[in-house]
Design goal:
The protein has 489 residues and is an alpha/beta fold. It has a domain at 66-243 and 303-414 and 464-473: Rossmann fold, CATH 3.40.50. Helices cover 33% and strands 20% of the residues. The strands form three sheets. Strands 2, 3, 4, 5, 6, 7, 12, 16, 17 and 18 form a ten-stranded mixed beta sheet that branches. Strands 1, 8, 9, 10 and 11 form a five-stranded antiparallel beta sheet that branches. It has a three-stranded antiparallel beta sheet with strand order 14-13-15. A hairpin with a 2-residue loop joins strand 8 and strand 9 (251-259). It binds S-adenosyl-L-homocysteine (SAH). S-adenosyl-L-homocysteine binds at residues 78-79, 86, 106, 108-109, 142-144, 148, 172-175, 178, 234-236, 239.
Length: 489
């Protein structure tokens, strides 16, 4: 029996390996966007104490100095040294944020095909752009367990000329425990991790000549004209802090986070109530600033899209200056190199400005983002148009493609063909060794359905892809309408 791939991606996809043995059907598990689930259920905080040590710290800070911005609150919840969702020390055996035992599931954990296709995307860009003497940087922002990078790297390794040009794999990660998981997967549990300036480094398990290098900030990644950056950000931008504003009779006013202990301070206005009602007893709540804040003065004038909403009384908008700042750096890095690419995949809006999108997830249930800070994952919709605008503003030497729906992106990259190919390989194994791979086949099929499905629970329409590439002759990247071109060797 021969397994064939029918598509223009055959050339690339046939280089990929048969399935790995660890596939799981994750159909009962919710994605980070929270599709599937409904009820808010964090426990009510004990009046005499605090739900978490971070809740206490935030309450005391707010009581001392007044309400804080939503961005400051979100940042503390996610990456505070005092017990942020990603930075808190996890007890031995407590597991991490992902999968059935964690809080949510992400695409690379659902199917190996996801990371492999992103690897194919990177290879297809390299084939089109390759330059002699270049040093390729493979960069991932927020790599989680490292699964996507592991699947991506296995794919890139099939293309020797490209793999031989890779200078290092760079991971931008704020979480010490997830950095540990990434190190175990990519370098092996025994390999020593070394401290380097501003970060850590260790040898790749499968390619000992290549170092895996961790930084907490994108800016630490070295940059010069010979270095070609290929940058992946999957479910990273949704974790970057947002500011929220409501359009009042007096112009844009910022929504701030207040402590419930300061009773009577809340203004229940449109846009505020929606978030508050997601939990019965949140320890924190939004309140409307009664005077302009620096952010309400500086951020809404940034784009015509926000100005257009000034006609709409009580309109609420979310702006993430941190995302815009990062996008600027990404765009400039690609622009200055005149080579490379960035691929951003996340959930969010294609053209509208996100509003009231901040939500919490705990144990696969959507809950208030204002309860149990540090224990609840908080995230917000990504404003893809704002990212695209910022990338173009930041460098004249880049162009932006998308956003396109994940279903279309993965479809064009050949997800169906790749999945069928792997299933065919499994069947071949069954012929040889008996019927032991039924669960893996089921996992591959349900994974495919989950990643591209546009039904409730599917990730195909909610998740979107955006690409930043150097300015070129109008040809689109693969997955955004383009074809595979160039030589692979
Ligand atoms: N991309 C992975 C994980 C997504 S979860 C996947 O798809 O499975 C978000 C990731 O971003 C985690 O690895 C988290 O630790 C990291 N992260 C969140 N905020 C961060 C920040 N401000 N700086 C660096 N890493 C951050």
């Amino acid at each position: 029996m021969k397994c064939r791939i029918k598509s223009q991606l055959k050339l690339l996809s046939t280089h990929l390996r048969p399935p790995k043995p660890y596939l799981h059907p994750y159909s009962a598990v919710t994605s980070r966007h929270g599709i599937h689930t409904t009820t808010p259920t964090p426990e009510a905080p004990d009046k005499a104490s605090y739900s978490t040590s971070l809740a206490r710290y935030l309450t005391e800070a707010i009581e001392a100095t007044g309400p804080i911005s939503l961005a400051a609150y979100m940042r503390q919840c996610l990456v505070s040294d005092l017990g942020g969702y990603y930075t808190a020390e996890r007890q031995v055996g407590a597991g991490d944020q992902f999968g059935q035992k964690g809080d949510f599931i992400t695409s690379p954990e659902i199917s190996q095909v996801f990371g492999e296709l992103i690897g194919i995307w990177v290879v297809s860009e390299w084939m089109r752009q390759r330059r002699s003497g270049e040093k390729i940087q493979i960069i991932e922002l927020g790599p989680g367990r490292g699964t996507l990078m592991s699947d991506l790297w296995r794919t890139v390794l099939r293309f020797k000329t490209m793999a031989d040009s890779v200078e290092a794999i760079y991971l931008v990660e704020a979480s010490p425990s997830l950095r540990g998981a990434q190190k175990a997967l990519l370098c092996g549990p025994e390999t020593k991790i070394r401290e380097i300036e501003n970060g850590f480094s260790c040898q790749s398990k499968v390619s000992p000549k290549i170092n895996i290098i961790w930084y907490e900030d994108f800016s630490f990644i070295p940059q010069d004209k010979d270095r070609t950056p290929y940058i992946i950000a999957h479910e990273f931008f949704d974790a970057l802090p947002i500011h929220a504003f409501t359009n009042t009779d007096n112009g844009w006013r910022e929504l701030l986070v207040d402590a419930s202990s300061r009773k009577g301070q809340f203004v229940a206005k449109n846009g505020v109530s929606k978030l508050e009602t997601r939990s019965n007893t949140p320890e924190f709540a939004l309140t409307l600033a009664n005077a302009p804040t620096p952010h309400s003065i500086l951020l809404p004038p940034l784009s015509q899209r926000y100005k257009d909403l000034e006609k709409l009384k009580d309109a609420t908008i979310e702006i993430s200056p941190e995302s815009l700042g990062l996008m600027e750096k990404i765009s400039q890095k690609i622009g200055e190199a005149g080579a490379g690419a960035a691929l951003i995949i996340d959930y969010g809006t294609s053209d509208t400005v996100p509003a009231n999108s901040l939500h919490g997830i705990l144990k696969h249930k959507i809950c208030s983002p204002f309860s149990r800070p540090g224990e609840v994952d908080v995230s917000a919709d990504v404003d893809f148009t704002a990212l695209a605008e910022q990338a173009i503003k930041a460098s004249k030497k880049v162009e932006v493609h998308g956003p396109v729906k994940q279903s279309a992106f993965l479809g064009m990259l050949g997800i169906k063909e790749r999945t069928e190919f792997l299933i065919c390989e499994l069947k071949k194994q069954n012929n040889r060794w008996g019927d032991g791979n039924k669960d893996k086949e089921k996992a591959l099929r349900s994974g495919h359905d989950r990643l591209v499905g546009e039904h409730a629970g599917g990730m195909g329409a909610i998740y979107k892809a955006l690409a930043v590439v150097p300015v070129r002759d109008g040809r689109r990247p693969v997955g955004f309408g383009g074809e595979v071109t160039g030589d692979q060797d």
